[in-house]
């Protein structure tokens, strides 16, 4: 087998968080390109591999039969040499509230390029800070990835919050031959807003109701006739045993754009503040008529780099996470992302992907 040149990724560049590591690992596995990631999470209060990152590394080690050096907690340097991609059933229990969605963010792109379907069963946090809430993955990421010809099934068996975790999900991934170019350029007209305002454990239903009512009020202030169907849910003890609360709201447009925003309950933050934060952010997206919200931006970059053809999206100003994802994708694949601002002040991001083909799937036929 041809040995590809090792790529060194500086984990402290730009955002300096876990995302550079996640994207570098995924691309390393897909392209079978060895990587060394240095200064991992250098800009975080506790640099190095945290639980979530370590679980992602070790899952990918199994998935790709990789040689790995530095896969220990708080390690600031990692060398990873993948061999193949093995579609199979995988299971990991983080024993913490490590974000399940962020571990999925690492393994999903890789398993798309396996020779057969896979299931990844994870225990950890489903709704935790600084990560997509599980409803965001289902309601925003999933339909957005469909535009790249990617589909997955995600089942929430149990919800889990900070600090204990205890959430459990199953992700089923079907491999693809290649990723199509995704287009996110036409906003169309706002059609409806939906989502969920939830609570669990000893958190009273009134809190979820207050978040929902405030969110609906903010949306209706700007668009009095907007169809706004945010469900209020109290999770049963079978579905969530610890205390937790949050809101995820999603705007749908006539061209199929989905834009999400969210907030999570925390001590000393009033419910109406959470509802207002989430809905004000969503209103901002709708007013600017952008097709990709601030959190989705960085999550699309890896797929744009791998796609067959030119993908494009219209967003607000690029986040530091997105700039970081672009840096990693360019280093790993050699693609070039173009970023421009149009006359309406929206950011237009485009990239001609490398047209990556799944050789494992084709050789199976
Ligand atoms: N509220 C949210 N909704 C959707 N996605 C989110 C939300 N908050 C964060 N994300 C996404 O989660 C990821 C967080 O990346 P980041 O590098 O901060 O992760 P991390 O592994 O938690 O690292 P660190 O602990 O080093 O910050 C990004 O893809 C970001 O877009």
Give a brief outline of the structure.
This protein has 365 residues and is an alpha/beta fold. The chain has helices spanning 18-31, 51-64, 100-111, 134-146, 205-222, 271-288, 294-306, 320-333, 359-363; strands spanning 7-10, 35-38, 67-69, 78-81, 89-93, 118-124, 152-158, 167-173, 183-184, 190-200, 227-234, 244-253, 258-264, 310-315, 337-341, 347-352. The strands form four sheets. Strands 1-2-4-3 form a four-stranded mixed sheet. The protein has a four-stranded mixed sheet with strand order 5-6-8-7, covered by helices on one side.
Overall CATH architecture of the largest domain: 2-Layer Sandwich
State the domain count. 4
How many individual β-strands? 16
Major β-sheet annotation: 4 strands, mixed
Report strand %: 25-35%
The CATH H-level superfamily of the largest domain is RNA 3'-terminal phosphate cyclase, insert domain
Q: Mind telling me the CATH class of the largest domain?
A: Alpha Beta
What name is given to the CATH topology of the largest domain?
Dihydrodipicolinate Reductase, domain 2
Order of helices and strands: EHEHEEEHEHEEEEHEEEHHEHEEH
Distance between the termini: 22 Å
Protein name: RNA 3'-terminal phosphate cyclase
GO biological process, one term: RNA processing
EC number: 6.5.1.4
Pfam family, one: RTC
Tell me about this structure:
This protein is of the alpha/beta class and 365 residues long. The protein has nine helices and 16 strands. Strand 12 and strand 13 form a beta hairpin. The strands form four sheets. A four-stranded mixed beta sheet has the order 1-2-4-3. It has a four-stranded mixed beta sheet with strand order 5-6-8-7, covered by helices on one side. It has a four-stranded mixed beta sheet with strand order 9-14-16-15, covered by helices on one side. The radius of gyration is 20 Å and the shape is globular. Helix 1 (18-31) runs parallel beside helix 8, helix 2 runs parallel beside helix 3 and helix 5 runs parallel beside helix 6 (271-288). It has four domains: 1-84, 2-Layer Sandwich (Translation Initiation Factor IF3), CATH 3.30.110.150; 86-177, UDP-n-acetylglucosamine1-carboxyvinyl-transferase, Chain, CATH 3.65.10; 190-288, 2-Layer Sandwich (Dihydrodipicolinate Reductase, domain 2), CATH 3.30.360.20; 291-356, 2-Layer Sandwich (Ribosomal Protein S8, Chain: A, domain 1). The structure holds adenosine-5'-triphosphate. Residues 15, 17-19, 41, 44, 52, 102, 130-132, 136, 262, 295, 298-299, 321 line the site of adenosine-5'-triphosphate.
């Amino acid at each position: 087998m041809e040995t590809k040149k090792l790529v060194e990724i500086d984990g402290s560049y730009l955002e300096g968080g876990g995302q550079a590591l996640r994207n570098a690992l995924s691309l390393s596995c897909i392209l079978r390109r060895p990587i060394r990631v240095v200064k991992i999470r250098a800009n975080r209060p506790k640099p190095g591999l945290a639980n979530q990152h370590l679980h992602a590394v070790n899952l990918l080690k199994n998935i790709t039969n990789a040689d790995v050096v530095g896969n220990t907690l708080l390690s600031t340097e990692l060398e990873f040499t993948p061999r193949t991609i093995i579609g199979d059933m995988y299971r990991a229990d983080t024993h913490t509230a490590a974000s399940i969605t962020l571990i999925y963010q690492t393994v999903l792109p890789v398993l798309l390029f396996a020779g057969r379907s896979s299931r990844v069963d994870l225990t950890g946090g489903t709704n935790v800070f600084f990560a997509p809430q599980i409803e965001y993955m289902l309601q925003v990421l999933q339909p957005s990835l469909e535009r790249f010809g990617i589909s997955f099934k995600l089942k929430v068996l149990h919800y889990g919050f900070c600090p204990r975790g205890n959430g459990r999900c199953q992700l089923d991934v079907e491999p693809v031959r290649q990723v199509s170019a995704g287009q996110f350029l036409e906003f169309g007209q706002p059609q409806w807003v939906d989502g969920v305002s939830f609570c669990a454990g000893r958190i009273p239903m009134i809190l979820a109701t207050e978040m929902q009512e405030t969110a609906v009020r903010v949306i209706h202030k700007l668009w009095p006739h907007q169809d706004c169907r945010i469900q209020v849910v109290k999770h049963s003890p079978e579905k969530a045993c610890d205390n937790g609360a949050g809101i995820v709201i999603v705007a749908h447009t006539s061209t199929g754009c989905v834009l999400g925003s969210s907030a999570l309950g925390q001590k000393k933050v009033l419910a109406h503040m959470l509802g207002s934060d989430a809905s004000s952010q969503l209103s901002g997206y709708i007013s600017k008529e952008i097709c990709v919200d601030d959190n989705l931006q960085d999550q699309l970059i890896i797929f744009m780099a791998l796609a067959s053809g030119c993908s494009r999206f219209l967003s607000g100003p690029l986040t530091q996470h997105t700039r970081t994802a672009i840096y990693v994708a360019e280093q790993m694949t050699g693609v070039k992302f173009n970023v421009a601002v149009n006359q309406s002040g929206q950011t237009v991001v485009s990239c001609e992907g490398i047209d990556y083909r799944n050789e494992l799937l084709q050789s199976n036929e």
